[in-house]
Write a structure and sequence with these properties.
The protein folds into six domains: 113 residues, MutS, DNA mismatch repair protein, domain I (3-Layer(aba) Sandwich); 136 residues, Nucleotidyltransferase, domain 5, CATH 3.30.420.110; 134 residues, MutS, DNA mismatch repair protein, Chain A, domain 3; 88 residues, Orthogonal Bundle (MutS, DNA mismatch repair protein, Chain A, domain 3), CATH 1.10.1420; 197 residues, Rossmann fold (3-Layer(aba) Sandwich); 39 residues. The chain is 42% helix and 18% strand. It contains 30 helices and 27 strands. Helix 12 crosses helix 20, helix 14 packs across helix 17 and helix 17 runs antiparallel to helix 19. The site of adenosine-5'-triphosphate has 14 residues, from helix 22.
Length: 889
């Protein structure tokens, strides 16, 4: 592969011979060895040599040849005006893109225009609005293992910064498993690793960027941190945190053009995993909080709760849901606020309407501070500030929002300054005037008056000169090259007065100027030019004054964001008919009592969702059996989600709920349920199970969904049973275990804290109806055969399966009728020792007129499949083709 970053290979031998401009390009490439340099030439960003070929390929733009005295080079360009979509493609192709802009006016430059890299765009540090989804976060993160400097204590420092908003998160976690958990929550787009050492972070959905190991050096990192916080040793817990944080800040600075500390990164927030309800990656995924890869609706829990009106609120709600609380007072405070808004529909809807007018203050503050805000950004800031008094008034009488009320800083000084200084509808460009309002600056007003008077004089000139010369067709005009002129057609040239000087000859006319016109022209353009540049200076002054208030703007942004998140929760609660959860007294055991609980997402997709109760004392283990598709997984997840929503400060989908404050939620979904994740194997399932068995406490909630089914029935049942016993006897963690191993249900007879629950179904003839209702006791039938029939398995196979069940279980009526009876426990799974005779197989084959060889071929193919790496679609297609093979027989 040819190198597209660093010194272009084509240039290695000729870099001293090339033209000055290409020399400048080569030099910038060498200075940014890891980035693809885009080089401004007029209205385009150009890439040359090998990089040009890559830009042409990725961006689908034309590859051309540049020819100069020193040779020919490939060249590809993207228009600067429309660069965003091309940059997005390059970043998606995992490139860091360095933008080398012309940093002096081409007209003023003597010789080569100076260029410098003003931004390096990388997946984790994007700040351009056009490249960012509204309300999203974009983090670059790094992980550093603690070492001798930290007294050789175990653990890892983790830091992440969002370069668009200035948010910076720091934490320390004890184990590698915790690193994974933390990164899964942060979901960085980019992870920094030192270029001299292997990373300690797990693989993930992020781009890994190797950076100079020096950025991670303790002293370098600490020095950098002192630019951001007064006393890094007090603000951050240990060396590993400082090194991780120093590295991400250094990288963020580099991507913003290396102009020193990023003033707007002023909120370095440490948090401790223990201060939040912990959710491991499996829980985040299987509870479908943010990501729903399953078939069907595709909606996530976040989607259901997200009624936010602003990008600020959306980001805040996302943060809250990723990190539910464990501090009871803080949870109750959020619930109080949500309740007050639930109970007042008028305030709720007015608040939401007002919040919809809020611009993304966090990103605006970032842009102002980075000196990238234009006049429209300042106007957007003003528009947002102008809703603050109304917001305050709206919530003034709501005690639960008094803290937010106090934190809503109207920033009068900033609002007044912007309003007095910036035009109401300014242009995007800052250098072409129209930015500063009249009456803001006397000198500017005087210049604009001169310019205006001059233009008026010119406007009147045509009539005056027509009268003076008697030439009716005389006209006054202006063009870029020659400026103002008086145009007289050829037949009238005789009447031209003496003070006219020829400026330009056209085919049918001559153009002239007079000394006075020339004088006025100089005056007009001189004044306009000075005014434009004065406007720019004044704008920068205003922007600087506003930038000095970044902290206050960010604090206001946080208060507005929280209000929006609370308002969103109250809208979701009202629309979803949720109730306020109660919490157990801290001294009580971790009892979960839910009356009429529902799954917040599934209930939105079902015409009639059946609510279910849950009553579990702390440490109880509920073994849940029931047919496939009867609702076991939905039920378990709804219990976890109700607990999680409650700790987020949300109302919950239930008629009533009294809950404990959980420390962790674990979920483990059996191998074959998680094929879409692409990596579940029995081994993985077991190692994740190990984590639960190590880490769950008597305040944890554990969901086990068909754990153990990735292996033989006998082994699976043995593992499931041993796990259940261990959780019950040793960990005392409240547990829901959905299983098809009916043998497990016998544990309920042996252990007081183990209960059986089941999902019933009724059968009429061959049709099974799922009731989706949970009831005490074990299920007596799995209806696997009925479900197989409903899924289209051929009748002879279904009939034969019924016969096999009958012979192996001695059950004359396999599957039972209505099985909604407590404690009935007839194992319907074939036990591990089921004698599946060759005769039986031969019978089935004969009935279906299938050839044993053809079947064997299909079986071979089935064995060959690497199911763990297949997408569901591939799996379906493969199934289809296997069935066609048999059909053809
Ligand atoms: N309480 C309910 N009310 C109405 N419909 C429900 C309810 N619970 C589940 N369902 C519907 O039944 C479908 C299957 O539910 P679920 O996946 O929970 O079954 P399961 O018993 O876990 O199945 P399996 O054992 O095959 O994994 C859901 O997708 C949903 O459409």
């Amino acid at each position: 592969m040819t190198a597209v970053t660093g010194l272009p290979p084509m240039m290695v031998d000729r870099k001293d011979e090339v033209t000055p401009m290409l020399g400048q390009y080569v030099e910038l490439c060498e200075q940014h060895p890891d980035a693809l340099v885009l080089f401004q030439v007029g209205d385009f960003y150009e890439a040359f040599c090998e990089a040009a070929e890559e830009v042409a390929r990725v961006c689908e733009v034309t590859l051309t040849q540049r020819e100069d005295s020193t040779g020919e080079y490939p060249m590809a360009g993207i228009p600067i005006d429309n660069a965003a979509s091309y940059l997005e493609r390059l970043v998606e192709a995992d490139y860091r893109v360095a933008l080398a802009d012309q940093v002096e006016d081409a007209e003023e430059a003597s010789g080569l225009v100076d260029r410098a890299v003003t931004r390096v765009i990388t997946p984790g540090t994007v700040v351009e609005d056009e490249l960012l989804a509204a309300g999203s976060t974009t983090y670059v993160a790094s992980v550093v293992e603690r070492d001798a400097a930290d007294g050789d204590r175990d653990g890892y420092g983790i830091a992440a910064v969002d370069a668009s908003t200035g948010e910076c998160l720091v934490t320390t976690v004890p184990t590698r498993g915790d690193v994974r958990e933390e990164l899964d929550r942060i979901q960085p787009n980019e992870l920094l690793v030192a270029d001299d050492a292997p990373t300690v972070a797990p693989d993930g959905d992020w781009m890994e960027s190797a950076v100079d190991a020096e950025l991670f050096d303790s002293t370098v990192a600490r020095d950098r941190l002192t630019e951001y916080v007064a006393d890094p040793d007090r603000r951050l817990d240990n060396h590993a945190e400082q090194r991780a944080c120093g590295a991400v800040l250094a990288y963020a600075e580099y991507t913003q053009g290396d102009n020193g500390p990023l003033e707007y990164v002023s909120r370095i927030r440490r948090h401790d995993q223990r201060d939040q309800l912990r959710l491991d990656a499996a829980a985040l995924r299987s509870l479908e909080l943010f990501d729903n890869r399953g078939p069907g609706s595709g909606a996530t829990v976040f989607d259901v709760l997200d009624e936010t009106a602003s990008a600020l609120g959306r980001r805040c709600l996302d943060r809250w849901l990723r990190r539910p609380l464990v501090d009871r007072a803080a949870i109750e405070a959020r619930l109080d606020a949500v309740e007050s808004l639930v109970s007042d529909g008028v305030v709720r809807s007015d608040l939401s309407d007002l919040l919809a007018e809020a611009y993304d203050l966090e990103r605006l503050a970032g842009r102002v501070s980075r000196e990238r805000a234009n006049a429209r950004d300042l106007r957007a800031l003003h528009a947002t500030l102008s809703i603050v008094p109304d917001l305050k008034e709206l919530i003034a009488d709501i005690p639960a929002l008094s803290d937010h009320h106090d934190r809503l800083d109207e920033l009068d000084d900033v609002a007044t300054l912007i309003d007095e200084a910036i035009s109401p509808e300014p242009p995007m460009e800052l250098t072409e005037g129209g930015v500063i309002k009249q009456s803001f600056d006397d000198e500017l007003d005087a210049l604009r008056t001169t310019e205006q008077a001059g233009r008026e004089w010119v406007a009147d000139l045509e009539a005056a000169e027509r009268e003076r010369t008697g030439i009716d067709s005389l006209s006054v005009g202006h063009n870029q090259v020659h400026g103002y002129y008086i145009e007289v057609t050829n037949p009238n040239l005789d009447a031209v007065p003496d003070d006219y000087t020829r400026r330009q000859t056209l085919k049918n006319a001559e153009r002239f100027y007079t000394p006075e016109l020339k004088e006025r022209e100089d005056e007009i353009f001189g004044a306009a030019e000075r005014a434009d540049s004065l406007e720019y200076d004044l704008f920068c002054e205003v922007r600087e004054t506003v930038a000095a208030e970044t902290d206050r703007i960010q604090a206001l942004a946080t208060a507005i964001a929280e209000l929006d998140a609370l308002c969103s929760l109250s809208i979701a609660a009202t629309e979803g008919d949720y109730v306020r959860p109660e919490f157990q007294a801290a001294s009580d055991d971790a009892q979960i009592s839910i009356h009429g609980g529902r799954h917040p997402v599934v209930e939105t997709t079902q015409a009639e969702f059946v609510p279910n109760d849950t009553d579990l004392a702390g440490g109880d283990v509920a073994i849940i059996t029931g047919p496939n598709m009867s609702g076991k997984s939905t039920y378990m997840r709804q219990v976890a989600l109700i607990c999680l929503l409650a700790q987020t400060g949300s109302f919950v989908p239930a008629e009533a709920a009294t809950l404990p404050v959980l420390d962790r939620i674990f979920t483990r979904v059996g191998a074959s349920d998680d094929i879409a994740g692409g990596q579940s194997t029995f081994m993985r399932e077991m190692s994740e199970l190990t984590e639960i068995l190590h880490d769950a406490t008597d305040n944890s909630l554990v969901l086990l969904d068909e754990v153990g089914r990735g292996t033989s029935t006998a082994d699976g049942l043995a593992i499931a049973q041993a796990t259940t016993e261990f959780i019950h006897d040793e960990l005392d963690a409240t547990t829901l275990f959905a299983t098809h191993y009916h043998g497990l249900t016998e544990l309920a007879d042996e252990r007081a804290g183990v209960h059986n629950l089941h999902f019933a179904a009724t059968r009429e003839g061959d049709d099974v109806t799922f009731l989706h209702r949970v009831a005490p006791g074990a299920s007596s039938a799995s209806y696997g055969i009925e479900v197989a029939r409903m899924a289209g398995v051929p009748t002879p196979v279904v009939d034969r399966a019924r016969d096999v069940v009958k012979t192996t279980t001695g059950d004359g009526d396999a599957g039972g009728d209505d099985v909604d009876s407590e404690g009935a426990d007839t194992p319907t799974e074939p036990a591990a020792s089921v004698p599946t005779t060759d005769d039986a197989i031969a019978d089935v084959l004969a009935e279906q007129a299938l050839d044993a060889e053809a079947v064997a071929a299909v079986v071979d193919e089935l064995h060959e499949l690497d199911i763990a790496t297949m997408t569901p679609l591939e799996a379906l297609n493969t199934l289809d083709s296997l069935r066609s093979q048999l059909d053809e027989e």
